[in-house]
Structure formats: structure tokens, C-alpha cells
Queue: 2 jobs
Job 1
Amino acid sequence: MADRADLVVVGAGTIGGWASVFAAADGVGRVVVVEQGLAGMGASSRAAGIVRAQGGIPATVTLGRWSIDFYNGQWAAYGTDSGFRELGYLILAVTDEDERAGRERVAMQRAAGLADVRWLTADEAVALIPTLASDGHRGGSYRDGDGHVDPPRNVRAYSLAMQACGVDLRERTAFTGLRTASDGRVIGVETSAGVIETERVLLTGGPSLRAVGALCGLRIPSGAARHTVAVLEPHEAFAIERQPMVFDIGAGLYWRLEEGGLLFGWSDPDEQPGEARAIDLAAYERYRARLAEFVPITRDLGLRKIWAATIDYTPDHLPILGPAMRPDGSLIDGAWVAAAAGHGMMWGPGVARVAADLALRGRTELIDVTDLGLDRFDAQGRSRLDPDPIALPYPRVAGD
Ligand SMILES: Cc1cc2nc3c(=O)[nH]c(=O)nc-3n(C[C@H](O)[C@H](O)[C@H](O)COP(=O)(O)OP(=O)(O)OC[C@H]3O[C@@H](n4cnc5c(N)ncnc54)[C@H](O)[C@@H]3O)c2cc1C
């Protein structure tokens, strides 16, 4: 008997994992997920877990809000969760320009339906976050309902949900190409373990999405860069239930509570993009010094753990959600592409919901995806969209 599926998903990260669950729950039929390694072994298990609805444009506000609602409702829906913990999130303004842009952003977010985001002055921010230095910043935008997930627990949550929905997860099975009919329709997926007949495919891949696309003739300008996360030793000031997370947006540095200590993460804008897992200790010292300016009690805390991993990004920091379009503009009918652009914890469930909608029905009600497809990029990988203003500092191109 032929190996057949009603939907094949490439990649068992948080995007492919949750999309497969949504598609199976929608009754698409037989869903197969092919994963070249093990579920979650890409970016999804290594993230810092920051989740915010404070997006930079209305679509990313919606994706963040939808994802937080999803995380909050997981127990009821799946009997398990991704460990979402509401801590609040302050996006710090350091310069005049940060404050101007931040106040404008709050107005946009409120107009987009995020009623509970507000501006905090420096004094109000320090009153809320006692470990925050009182000088060197101008307060920032703040929302109570933002927080973080536990990334390994999220991998566990979607893996359990996949199993409960009857999704067929095939680990150690690499996607190697697509089979198409003479009219361009998808008729099968080639893998390292043989061909799966199907008329629907969802391509994900996180930091490897570009390579996944190249296997079927797509040019996906999705990049990969080093991102580093460190956790400092416990301190009594952090041994509390709740203290808001902070993003020093100009420096691309963020921090949050973690097991009685402080977790902080950064991407170095001066670094060449590419796959990188080694730790740059000089950068660690620089970002640690910057952190100590804002959180003075961290100055003497020892390092508890540190890791570097490859993060996905797009040139405009926005997700890719659209049909598989070849460089000549022709479509591979039945194939779709989904990428969270380095925001897979905060937008992941929303991106996965949209991806499942597109793969099953060709449309979605969640956000307007008209501009989010591959056709927004030129041959050099430059986007015609303005970048999402709240993002880590990655290059504006992810070309060859
Ligand atoms: C250190 C770090 C910190 C981060 N912190 C945050 C954060 O705080 N908040 C946030 O929102 N986001 C964060 N991110 C980003 C987030 O983790 C990613 O955006 C998200 O995990 C991407 O999910 P994905 O499913 O697209 O990709 P992945 O999780 O990478 O999954 C893609 C999967 O595809 C598989 N694959 C690749 N090629 C093939 C093939 N040919 N055949 C079959 N399978 C294939 C890979 O093995 C992988 O398992 C962070 C990332 C890193 C690295």
C-alpha cells in the first residue's frame, strides 16, 4: 500500500508541531510530520521563552495576543501546557527617540485592541520593578499580561498533543524534495525514508528553512544567527513569584526571572550571521556589563548556565506565511511556507494556526496575510515592508 497523507508537515518545531495539531483537530485526516532529527531539536527547545503581545505592527499584536490566549487555555484544551507564566513586560526607552517611538507604538497597539498596554515613566517603572536602576532610562511601554513559556515544556506539550490527535510523527526522517504533477500541483513528498503521497504540504524549518526551500526550488530569504542566553545565580531579590521582564530594545538585550536567578539573552548586531552554537565570552562580558547598568545587583552574581543556539530571522523581522512561490513567481499548488522569524515562542501558536488554515483552506481569519508571503522579497532577499520595530538587531538582508 502506498504511504499516503492528507497533509505532510516538514519540521517538528513549535510551528510544525502546533500546526499539525490544529490541522488534525480540524479533521483534515491523516497528518504526517517529518523531522530530520528529533522533535524540538531546532530552535524551539533552546529559546528563552519570552512571550509578548506588544507587537510592533497590528498583525504581530494579534499573533501575540492569540498565542497568549492559546497558552492560557492549554489545560482545558489539551490537559497539558507550555508553562506560560504571566510576569508583565517593560520595553525600555533609553533615548528620546525610543520614547517617541514607544509612545507611538502604544497608541498603535491600543488601536489594534491591546487595551491594557500603557506607558510607564521611569519612576513608575522602578516602583513596579524594584531591581531596575532609577537612572539611565525613561521608563517604557508596559503590559501586565505578557510573560514567558518554558521552551522544553512547550516541546513536550505539542508532542503530547500530536500524539493525542493521532498525528504521525516521523523522527530521523529528512524531507528531501517535492513531487509535482505536470500542472504544478503537489502530489508527493520525498523523504530519506521514501515517498509520501499527498496533495498538501506545509514547509517549516526555523533556522534551516532556507535549506528546506532550496530542496524544492524555493528561494526563502530566511536567515540564521547566533543568539545567546545566560542565567545568573539566585538572589533573594529574584526569589519572588512575579517581577516584570524587561527589553532594552536598543541593545537587543532582555531579561526575566528564572529559578530564583535572572535569565538574560542577546544577539550581537556586529556579528556575521550564520549557524553558530559556540559561546562568545567577550560578548557575554559586554552584555553582562550593560545588564548591570540596569540591574545593579547582578554585578556580583556568578554565572549559573549559558547557551548559544541558532535563531531564525527574516530581513523585516516579520513572519513568512504564504504559498510556496518559486523565484519566477509560479506557485507550487498545495505547498505552503511558515516561519516565525525568531519569534516562535511569542507568535508560534498564532503562526501555526494561520499556517494550518492556509494549508487546509487557503485562507485565514486570524490576520491579513496578503503582504506576508514570499513575494514581498526581491531577488536579493530585501523586503518591501518596513521591519517590525520591536525586534532583536538582525541584518536587513538574509541573502546568499
Ligand atoms: C537561543 C534562542 C532564544 C530564543 N528566544 C526566544 C524568545 O524568547 N521568544 C521567542 O518568541 N522566540 C525565541 N526564539 C526563537 C524561537 O525559538 C524560534 O522562532 C522558533 O523556535 C522557531 O520554530 P520553528 O518550528 O519554525 O523552527 P525549529 O524549532 O527550528 O524547528 C524546525 C525543525 O525543522 C527540522 N528540519 C530542518 N530541515 C529539515 C528537513 N530537511 N527535513 C525534516 N526536518 C527538517 C529541524 O530539525 C527542526 O526540528 C529563540 C531562539 C533561540 C535559538
Job 2
Amino acid sequence: MTPTQIHRHTRLSIFMHWFNAGCWIFLLLTGLGLIQNNDLQPFTAWPVMLRQIFGGGANLLLAHEIAGSVWAGGFLIYGIFRLKSDVISFIREIFTVDLKRDGLWLVTKGIQMTLGYKMLGIIAGKFGFSPRIPDQGFYNVGQKIFAIPAVFGGMVIAASGIIMILSQVGMAGNELVQWAILIHFITVGLVFAGLLIHVFMASIAAGEQPAFVSMFTGTVPEDYALHHHKLWVDEVKNSKR
Ligand code: HEM
């Protein structure tokens, strides 16, 4: 028998997520190719190869700038048209944190994922806390910890990118551009570090496959939702009463 499914993502939010992921992959690959300084470049063959594919450094830079503009522009349009229905509720959700409950979730979930349930029981007994992993809402606190820098880091990356583009037409001063370059690099690096964990947690980690499937179908099985996002399931059920 097929398990009961609960609606989790709209078609538009699924589209925006994969649009974002596609843009990120392209921007990371082309951005890495723009670093031609051998002291900074871990893959020295990559810039050479990309320049051959794109027909030179200028075209590579143009492709990176166009993709960045499409990415930032896409989110600007989405943000304007879906501000009330999607954006505000998403921001409210990722900033809603219960320090005690979510702190304990980070500790218990971290131990369970690395050492297993048995060790979680032993460690919890030793240190006097409950081995029960606290219930979570639509997103667990780990997802929130990634989502906040992903959203605001994205804005910083877009803004610093725009400053760099403006500098090419003489509309941004040298000092501002130097800062923009530094901030662009650091922010991409920080979000990328979180992204590695996000991709692992969202698609590879044991038990997380229903979340990955939901990013295509829009629904999750009820038993998965109850296990991972019980507070959200309770909310959905209460709103139907
Ligand atoms: C290509 C690799 C990616 C995969 C496999 C992936 C997978 C997923 C999945 C399965 C979810 C849904 C989680 C749920 O319903 O509970 C999700 C949500 C999300 N993704 Fe991705 N994603 C990828 C790339 C990205 C990128 C590049 C970003 C932004 C830099 C991003 C940002 C987010 C955010 C903000 C959410 C909502 C909160 C969260 O679940 O962390 N994702 N992703």
C-alpha cells in the first residue's frame, strides 16, 4: 500500500530551488575558472580548459556575469511577486528558533548521526540529558542554520558582483571594488562550505531520501514527516480542523 503523502513544496518553490542550484553550479565552475593566479588556484588546468571552451577569458567573464545577473534577477522578480505568499513565511520559519529544544536537537542528532542511537543513549545517560531527539517544525534547526547564510549570503554575493560589473563601466571606485572582490570570495567560500553539508544532509544521508524526492514531487510520506518534522505535521493537521 502506498503511504499517505503530505504536500510540502509548491511547484514554483521547487522550480526556484533547482534554478538556484543550477545557477550556483554554473557560477561556481565559471568563477573558479576566473581565478588565474597559480598561488590561489588549486586546479591550475581548470582556467585554461574553461578559456578554451568559452573562447577566451573575456567570454568566460561575460558568461559568469550573465549567469549571475539571471540568478539575482530571477530571485528579485520572485521576491517581489511572492513576497507575501512565500518569502515572508520562509524568512519567519528559518528565524524561528527555540534555543533549548533546538540546541538539544543539534546535540542529539549530531551524536545519533555520527555514533548511532546506542551511543546516544549511553552518552545521554552519562551527561544526564534525554536521548530523545526533539521534534522539529517545517525545517529542522540544521536546515535553518544553512538557510539563513544561504539567503543573506546570496544577497551579499549578488551585491558585490553588481559592484564589480559597475566597475567595468567606471561606475564604482577602486577601493569599493577591492572590498567587493574580497567580500564576494569570502561569502562564496562560506556558503559553499555550508552547501557541501546541505547536499549531503538533503540527499545522501541515511533516512533523508524522502526530502530529496519531495524536491521533485512536492510531497513527503506521512511517516517520514512525523519522524522528521512532527511539529509541522501537527500544524498541518490543526489547520484542517
Ligand atoms: C545541487 C545540489 C542540491 C541538492 C541535492 C539540494 C537538495 C535539497 C533538498 C532535498 C531540500 C529540501 C529539504 C526539505 O524539504 O526538508 C533543499 C532545500 C533547500 N535548499 Fe537545496 N539542494 C541543492 C542545492 C542548493 C543550493 C545551491 C542552495 C543555495 C545556495 C540550496 C538552498 C536550499 C535551501 C535554502 C533550502 C531550504 C532549507 C533547507 O532545507 O536547508 N540548495 N535542498
